[in-house]
Amino acid sequence: MPQSKLTDRFGRTVNYVRLSVTDRCDFRCVYCMAEDMTFLPRQQVLTLEEIARVARNFVDLGTEKIRLTGGEPLVRKDILELVKEIGTYGLRDFAMTTNGSQLTTMAEPLRKAGMHRLNISLDSLDADKFRNITRTGKLSQVLDGIDAAREAGFRGIKINTVVMKGRNDEEIPELIEFARKKQVDISFIEEMPLGEISEHDRGLALCTSEEVRDIIRKHHELVPATEDSGGPARYYRMEDSETRVGFISPHSHNFCSTCNRVRVTVEGRLLLCLGNEHSVDLRRVLRGNPVTDDKLRETIINAMDLKPERHHFSTNGDVQILRFMNMTGG
Ligand code: SAM
Ligand code: SF4
Fold it and tell me: Of 63, 108, 213, 322, which has the most beta carbons under 10 Å away?
């Protein structure tokens, strides 16, 4: 695999791409979407062939890691075809972030199609609270999905939990015990101000990673993990378990200096930073005449100059980025 040809003005090498494959979802998580969302018209959404072409060109430029996300990637029709295609690119790491609702039927086909790892979102182990947070989700379906992923032989499964005061902060110890029992990792995420939401005040609901750590430490000693996660999560280990506990702290710990990733939205916008709007329109290139891989790669290489030095999220809950997370691909 070639060394990454993608470096930005601050000397950071980009070798990780997150591709959003749909803005649609079967859930309506309160921190991610409005209740009545309008989704994109189909012609504005990249086709699976266009997404694969973007992926292949990133790999040609030295990308070693691709994550498929959304929206809910498993509600995209024929997603397995895309997974099979990208599965042939010889990536060091090929992963998906999913809400888990389709995994009872999809885990095994995904594994067979070449997917390496899964991150599964789970914010509550209480069926009513789970329903409140996701608005439409059914807890038992996701729990079965997590079991299906384990049975399909996925290693390195990680649970993602967005912690919100008054909604699920009391469940942190139970979620840790769940992760230990299932022998999976778990990351706690600070809610980010993406998209305007109405169901809670993000400033008041913010539960910092420091606060989450203090709660866990009442039950388990946490020792910083020595291995480098290569991402924004800072990992800890517990003495008596293989489970790693991660913290993604966009507010309280700025991880921008080591950022190695970019995102491509479902409309083909190459987004250089989650917390800024700097972007380049790849769809225009993909649908230009003639479409050439050289032009696509040149556009991607030049876009690196737009990668901003850092994001600036304030903690008062004010929206700074109008696009919702389902557009961006978390
Ligand atoms: N539907 C899939 C899922 O939920 O895992 C993938 C897409 S979702 C946008 C990716 C991740 O972003 C999820 O773990 C979700 O909890 C997280 N997320 C969504 N909105 C967020 C926000 N405003 N702040 C922090 N994390 C958020
Ligand atoms: Fe859907 Fe994931 Fe957003 Fe929840 S976080 S609404 S599951 S895209």
Answer: 63
Pairing assessment for the beta strands 65-69 and 16-20 based on DSSP bridges: parallel
Ligand 2 closest atom vs CA 71: 8
1 lies in some domain:
no
Q: For residue 149, count CB atoms less than 10 angstroms from its CB and return exposed for 0-12, middle for 13-18, buried for 19 or more.
A: buried
Contact 193, 317 (CB under 8 A): yes
The CA distances from residue 222 to 96, 188, 189, 214, 299, in Å, are 27, 14, 17, 10, 44
Q: What are phi and psi of 176, to 5 degrees?
A: -65, -45
Q: Where are the beta strands (DSSP E) in 191-290?
A: 223-224, 234-237, 244-248, 261-264, 269-271, 279-281
Q: Does 142 sit in the ligand 2 pocket, CB within 6 Å?
A: no
Q: How far is CA 39 from CA 33, 34, 330, in A?
A: 11, 11, 17
Residue 143, in any domain of the structure = yes
pTM exceeds cut of 0.90: yes
Distance CA 80, CA 65 (A): 18
Residue-range definition of the domain harbouring residue 222: 6-328
Question: How many A from CA of 71 to the centre of ligand 1?
Answer: 8
Q: Tell me, what CATH number does 169's domain have? A: 3.20.20.70
- The pLDDT, as a whole number, for residue 318 is 55
**Count of structural domains within the chain:** 1
Is the minimum distance from the CB of 104 to ligand 1 under 6 angstroms?
no
Mind listing the pLDDT tens digit for each residue in 209-267? Answer: 999 999 999 999 999 998 766 677 899 999 999 999 999 987 766 678 888 899 999 99
Is 281 a member of any domain?
A: yes
φ, ψ for residue 246, nearest 5 deg: -110, 155
- Asked, for residue 272, whether it belongs to a domain, the answer is yes
Q: How far apart are CA 37 and CA 28, in angstroms?
A: 9
Query: Which residues pair with residue 93 across a beta bridge?
Result: 65
Are 282 and 270 a contacting pair, CB within 8 Å?
Answer: yes
* Tens of pLDDT, residues 68-108: 999 999 999 999 999 999 999 999 999 999 999 999 999 99
